[in-house]
Each structure stands twice: as structure tokens, then as C-alpha cells.
Amino acid sequence: MSAKGTPTDNAVIESFFATLKLECIYRTILDTQKTAEKLINEFIHYYNNIRIQSKTSLTPSEIRRLA
């Protein structure tokens, strides 16, 4: 475990959650928890399998397959 106030340890997940909120959550009115779960699952699938990263021109799943 890192010391308190060391944000570099979880920068990747913080970046993902910021993207999730910006591109998915804030653009939608969520009526129920089931709606939220469905929307988040669809976004995670999109993020991992369809969305191309500008730095690598590959999707995250393609990067993992190459590693």
C-alpha cells in the first residue's frame, strides 16, 4: 500500500473513472440501478473492445493480446 497523498499509484483507474463519468454517466438520466448497470457494462465493453486509443491506434483488448 502506498502512502496517503500518492496519487500516481491509482492514476490509471482514476483516469478511467473520469472518462466513464464524462462520456457516459453525465450524458444520461439514470432512472434505476439496473439502467445504470446496463449503461456502465455497455460503456466498459465499448472502452475495451471498440474505442481506439489515440496514442497506440489500438483498442485496449488488442494491446493486451499483443503483450
Describe, in plain words, how this protein is organized in 3D.
The radius of gyration is 15 Å and the shape is flat. By secondary structure, it is an all-alpha fold. It has one domain (7-66). The chain is built from three helices and no strands.
Quick take:
The chain is mainly α. The chain is 58% helix and 0% strand.
Keywords:
67 residues; mainly alpha; 0% strand
What is the strand and helix layout of this fold?
Elements: H1 11-25, H2 33-49, H3 60-66
Order of helical and strand elements:
HHH
Major beta-sheet overview: none
User: What helical percentage do the residues reach?
Assistant: 55-70%
Radius of gyration equals 15 Å
**Amount of beta strand:** under 5%
Q: Globular, elongated, flat, extended or rod-shaped: what is the shape?
A: flat
Q: Counting H and I runs of at least 4 residues, what is the number of helices?
A: 3
Number of strands: 0
Task: Point out poorly predicted stretches.
Answer: none
Mean pLDDT, nearest integer? 88
CA distance, first residue to last residue = 26 Å
Number of domains: 1
The helix-and-strand class reads mainly alpha
